[in-house]
Design a protein that fits this description.
It is built from twelve helices and ten strands. By secondary structure, it is an alpha/beta fold.
Length: about 350
C-alpha cells in the first residue's frame, strides 16, 4: 500500500468489535493513499452528556480526566489510545487520525460537573488519552475554554501535550499557578526531527516543544518532560542528550513510559518498522519482548509502564542516572485543590 501523506500509519486494520470489514482502495472521500491526493480529516460532533471520566489504575497519577477530542490528528504511530476508536465503530489505524470526534459542549459540561454538589475537588488530567492541543484546537479553542472554567473554579489540572500551541494559553495557566493548580507535561520522545516527522507526523517538532518548555518555565509554570514512549533500540540512546536539552530548556523533572502496544497497535507499529526501519525491526521487537516477558505488550498493572527483567532495569537505571546528572530527578510537582471554589456561590454571598 502506498504511503498516506502526513499520516502515521498506512492501513486501517479491522475493528475487533465488527464482523464486517470493507477494505477501500480509493473512494470519493479519498480514503486510502495516493501520493498526489492527501487524506482529508473529518470531524464529527460527539454528543456525550458527561465530560469527566474516572479510572482505577494504580499506574497513573490521577483518577479523573477530561478529553475534548476522541481520536488524534497528530498521528503518532505508537499511540496506545488508538484501540479506543474501535468503540466508536472506527478503525484504530487511519480512522484514528483522520476521523475525529469533537465534544463541542465540553466547557459547558465541565462547568456543570464542577458545580455539582457531588464533585469532590481533585486534580483533573487533561489529554490523558488524546492530545488536547491537536491541530483543530487552534480553530475550536475547546481546550482554552475548558481552562477558563478550571481557572474560574481554581480546580487543579495536569496537562500532557506534544504541541507548542499550549503557549497560547499561558495567561490561563498562570492564573492556575497562583493556587498550585497546574502542571504541564511536555511529551518529548526524540530530538531527531526526521524521526519525529515519520513517527509523530502532525506534532510540533522537537525544537518547538523545547521552545514551549522554555516559554512555560519562564512564565512560572511547572514543566515535566515525559519520554513517552521510550522505544528500546530506537530512541533509548537519546536519553542523555534529551534530558540535557530538557533541563537547559527549563524543565524541572522528567519521566518515561516504556512503549505500549495494545491490541492492533502491535500490528500498526510492526508495519511501520518494516516500512521505515526494516534493518532495526527485529532488534527493536526482540528487546521489547525481553522486557514484556516474551510478548509485545503487557496489560498488567505495575508492569505495563516500565517493563520487567534485566534489560528493563538497565534502562530504568540509565534514565534515573541521567535525570540525576541533569537535575531532573526532582519530585514531580504536587497539585493542590485547597483553593477550589464555586464562583456563582461566592457571588451570591455579596448580597
Amino acid at each position: 500500500m502506498e504511503k498516506v501523506i502526513g499520516r502515521g500509519v498506512t492501513v486501517n486494520p479491522p475493528n475487533r468489535f465488527e464482523t464486517l470489514h470493507v477494505d477501500k482502495e480509493m473512494d470519493e472521500d479519498n480514503y486510502v493513499a495516493n501520493e498526489k491526493l492527501p487524506l482529508k480529516t473529518r470531524y464529527y460532533v460527539d454528543h456525550s452528556t458527561s465530560f469527566i471520566t474516572y479510572n482505577e489504575s494504580p499506574d497513573v497519577g490521577f483518577t479523573a480526566s477530561i478529553n475534548p477530542y476522541r481520536g488524534c490528528e497528530h498521528g503518532c504511530v505508537y499511540c496506545y489510545a488508538r484501540p479506543m476508536h474501535e468503540y466508536l465503530g472506527f478503525s484504530s489505524g487511519i480512522d484514528f487520525e483522520s476521523r475525529i470526534m469533537v465534544k463541542t459542549r465540553a466547557p459547558e459540561l465541565l462547568r456543570k460537573e464542577l458545580s455539582s454538589k457531588n464533585w469532590k475537588p481533585q486534580p483533573l488530567a487533561l489529554s490523558s488519552a488524546t492530545d488536547c492541543y491537536q491541530p483543530i484546537e487552534r480553530k475550536l479553542k475547546l481546550t482554552r475554554r475548558c481552562l477558563e472554567v478550571l481557572a474560574e473554579f481554581r480546580n487543579p489540572v495536569s496537562i500532557i501535550t506534544k504541541n507548542h500551541l499550549i503557549t497560547r494559553d499561558i495567561d490561563l495557566l498562570q492564573k492556575l499557578a497562583q493556587y498550585q493548580a497546574i502542571n504541564v507535561n511536555i511529551s518529548l520522545t526524540t530530538l531527531d526531527p526526521q524521526l519525529a516527522k515519520i513517527m509523530e507526523p502532525r506534532t510540533a517538532q522537537p525544537e518547538h516543544r523545547l521552545h514551549a518548555v522554555t516559554a512555560l518555565a519562564q512564565a512560572g509554570i511547572p514543566v515535566n518532560i515525559l519520554m513517552a514512549p521510550l522505544i528500546p533500540g530506537l530512541t533509548d540512546h537519546e536519553i542523555p542528550n534529551l534530558l540535557q536539552a530538557a533541563t537547559q530548556a527549563g524543565a524541572k523533572s522528567a519521566g518515561y513510559v516504556l512503549l505500549r502496544l495494545p491490541h492492533s497497535v502491535k500490528e500498526l507499529f510492526t508495519d511501520w518498522l518494516e516500512t521505515h526501519f526494516p534493518e532495526k525491526k527485529k532488534r527493536i521487537l526482540d528487546q521489547l519482548c525481553e522486557m514484556r516477558q516474551g510478548k509485545l505488550n503487557e496489560s498488567q498493572f505495575h508492569r505495563r509502564m516500565k517493563g520487567q527483567g534485566s534489560l528493563a532495569q538497565q534502562l530504568d537505571q540509565l534514565f534515573k542516572l541521567c535525570a540525576k546528572r541533569t537535575g531532573l530527578n526532582q519530585k514531580h510537582f504536587t497539585l493542590s485543590a485547597q483553593a477550589f471554589r464555586h464562583p456563582a456561590g461566592e457571588q451570591l454571598t455579596l448580597f
